[in-house]
Request: fold
Amino acid sequence: MTRTDRLTAILDLLAKTGQVEVDEIVTRLGVSPATARRDLDSLAKRRLLTRTRGGATTGALAYDLPGRYNRDDHAVAKQEIALAASALISPGMVIGLCGGTTSTALAQILATREDLNSPSNQPTLTVVTNAINIAGQLAVRPNIKVMVTGGVLNPRSYELVGPYTDIIMQKVVLDIAFIGVNGIDPEVGPTNTGEGEASVNALLASRASVSYVIADSSKVGRRAFATMDGYAFTKLITDSGISAKDKAAFEAIGTEVIVAPETPRTRQA
Reply:
């Protein structure tokens, strides 16, 4: 397990009860007490938790933990997808992140990556997002430059949508865009429940050199209300729950399917 994986796992443990002890980290993650304490100190410096004598709590976080820490039957799959997406991102890039729990999981990983949090006199990463929860999540990372699009807030998804969002998005150029969806189907492509989100997602993808749909396998074969007109869907990052039949159907239309590796916790389940 890498250090980034450990930090994310500690946040997962913390989210369940609001507190975590050094002994629990040692037992669950198989690390030494000294390593557990160093990891907690590192997260505390990044304002992701509050240190206590024997562990840590969520008591004085600068912002709420992401929505993915709420009850989510697909949280592990989304975490695996987020790790695979993070591996595509290099320091200095400009990336686009739409809203959604998988994108939020990716933002959490980026917030704890050491190479993006090392001292620097210029941004180690620039993130363009229309999701205010993601912007707030990354706002406390001084090396990550965050640009928030304008628009009208959708209180269900925390995303900004509408013509003002479109105007701002026309002004940016992205290296990579990561697109969250409510459904993904080989025939109709990626879809969202709201036409506003679908429109912004398509525009975000159009501003990037390469774009990836990030969707757990429960969304494969599902069709939501709105299609992403104008979006050339060619790359999908999903989890190992995708069937061989569905994977072959996407590949038959020229879509590259990246199956995120299973984490140790998944394999043991």
The chain has a mean pLDDT of 87. The chain has two domains: 3-57, 67-268.
